[in-house]
User: Which sequence fits this backbone?
């Protein structure tokens, strides 16, 4: 793509799609199969269609980003990291 000229974002995206498809169909190093083959064999059969019902939020909470840059959610007691610039800020309902 280095020497190619594009006049709009759609042209670039189309070219990237073609190159990405070519890359995914190349055999992987030291393997007999490609990423495309592996996806079709192992992941595609497991994919399900999205549910028709809208997602409903069951619970909301307010949390503060601690000095260690983590948020503790009391419902499951898991720590989730946050960017340091959010330290001390409160988020949620």
Assistant:
């Amino acid at each position: 793509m280095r020497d190619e000229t594009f006049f709009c974002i759609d042209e670039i995206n189309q070219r990237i799609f073609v190159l990405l498809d070519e890359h995914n169909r190349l055999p992987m190093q030291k393997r007999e199969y490609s990423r495309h083959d592996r996806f079709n064999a192992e992941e595609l059969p497991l994919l399900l269609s999205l549910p028709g019902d809208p997602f409903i939020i069951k619970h909301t909470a307010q949390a503060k980003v601690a000095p260690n840059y983590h948020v503790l959610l009391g419902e499951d007691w898991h720590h989730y990291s946050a960017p340091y610039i959010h330290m001390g800020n409160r988020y949620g309902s």
The chain has two domains: 9-46, 62-92. The chain has a mean pLDDT of 93.
